[in-house]
Design goal:
Blueprint (H helix, E strand, L loop, with lengths): L1 H35 L8 H37 L2 H7 L4 H41 L4 E2 L5 E5 L2 E8 L5 E9 L5 E13 L5 E12 L8 E11 L5 H6 L9 H13 L5 H11 L1 H17 L7 H28 L4 H23 L1
Antiparallel strand pairs: 1-3, 2-3, 3-4, 4-5, 5-6, 6-7
Helix pairs in contact: 1-2, 1-4, 2-4, 2-8, 2-9, 4-8, 6-7, 7-10, 8-10, 9-10
């Protein structure tokens, strides 16, 4: 029985590797063509290739669940085409035993996904974005309209951040406990000082203090060359915010989501990406169960081309539904865990129902 498990596992794992090689190869070619088209006098083809290679681990991470789905279908499809599955069942091998044998390479895919998504892809993605900006001689815009942060009663806006962590175009709005504007600081740039406890040094700006009293109704304006700005914010946090939540690690997503939640900011996008990454192993397992159920159910006698086409279509529909529910959860403030788990639960129920009919 151990030899049978090993044989099925090796067959499915080989199919998954071939599928990953094909999908990742196509993705790499398209990414290279697209990025090379962005080259100019400052941003060379070598820089473009370097950037694509740095962000490529994230592409592989995103391809792993669909790779497990198609690979399971192809691997078991080869066994079914050679009537080996029929022989195994006739020899007394239960369907659940075959499912467990297929899940073993899927567990390897899950482990690789966790390794890539937590430790490798986010760091390389960030470094790639910073190197790309540096090669183009530009600042890294945190968003089209800049970026907002909050620290207690201070609301901060800055336009961009250099790859070395220098902020540009800073505005700091300080409010009193009565929610009235106490001061407004504008500065051209800010540099982080690491010692002793870490603080920012604002350069070339103005500070307007609003008295908000009847005795002193006028405002006081001060011009400064340098000014100390003590805020619970560091360049590492800001650099992470350069990349989208979907490209961050699980630990960073949770830490920043909790930070924004504690400050009264909208953290739903970060919690949504957090749950997507946390549930990706379960997503992979659910898709593999669906693939196995298709082999023993509706696709038992189908051609290999039909099986691959069905797997691709099912994977596309799965991600479309999950993305749709994710968007709905952000718009209507629904629980992000609900949006992520609904398609997974449906896949598990569908796969289980088909397997029970086949066994």
């Amino acid at each position: 029985m151990i030899k049978i498990d090993r044989y099925i596992k090796n067959q499915v794992l080989l199919a998954m590797l071939v599928v990953l090689f094909v999908l990742a190869g196509l993705d790499l070619v398209f990414a290279l063509v697209d990025e090379v088209g962005e080259t100019d006098a400052n941003y060379s083809s070598a820089d473009a290739i370097r950037y694509v290679l740095f962000v490529f681990p994230r592409h592989i991470y995103e391809l792993l669940p669909i790779t497990a789905l198609i690979g399971s279908l192809v691997g078991l499809g080869i066994l079914a085409s050679a009537n080996e599955l029929v022989i195994l069942q006739a020899s007394g091998v239960k369907v659940l035993r075959i499912v467990w044998a297929v899940m073993k390479p899927a567990i390897i895919v899950m482990a690789v996904g966790l390794l890539l998504g937590e430790f490798i892809a986010p760091k390389m993605e960030l470094q790639g974005e910073l190197d790309r900006a540096l090669a183009r001689g530009e600042q890294v815009a945190l968003s089209r309209y800049g970026h907002w942060q909050r620290d207690r009663n201070e609301f901060m806006h800055f336009n961009a951040i250099d790859p070395d962590g220098v902020l540009h175009g800073i505005s700091i709005y300080s409010f009193t406990e009565e929610q009235t504007l106490a001061s407004l600081v504008n500065a051209e740039s800010a540099r982080f000082q690491n010692e002793p406890d870490g603080y920012w040094l604002l350069d070339n700006g103005t500070e307007i203090n609003y008295s908000n009293t009847q005795d002193m109704p006028a405002s006081q304006v001060d011009v400064f060359k340098e000014k100390v700005w003590d805020v619970d914010l560091n360049p590492d946090l800001l650099k992470v915010l350069i990349i989208d939540p979907d490209k961050m690690s699980i630990s960073d997503l949770y830490r920043y989501a909790r930070r924004f939640e504690n400050q009264g900011q909208d953290s739903s996008a970060y919690f949504l990406s957090f749950w997507k990454k946390v549930m990706q192993p379960l997503t992979t397992a659910a898709l593999v169960i669906v693939a196995v159920s298709f082999i023993f159910g509706p696709l038992r006698s189908a051609t290999m081309g039909s099986k691959v086409f069905t797997a691709i279509c099912f994977g596309i529909v799965f991600y479309l539904v999950q993305n749709l529910l994710s968007t709905v959860s952000l718009v209507y403030q629904l629980n992000p865990l609900f949006a992520v788990t609904c398609p997974i639960v449906f896949c598990l129920l569908l796969g289980t129902a088909l397997l029970r009919r086949a066994s």
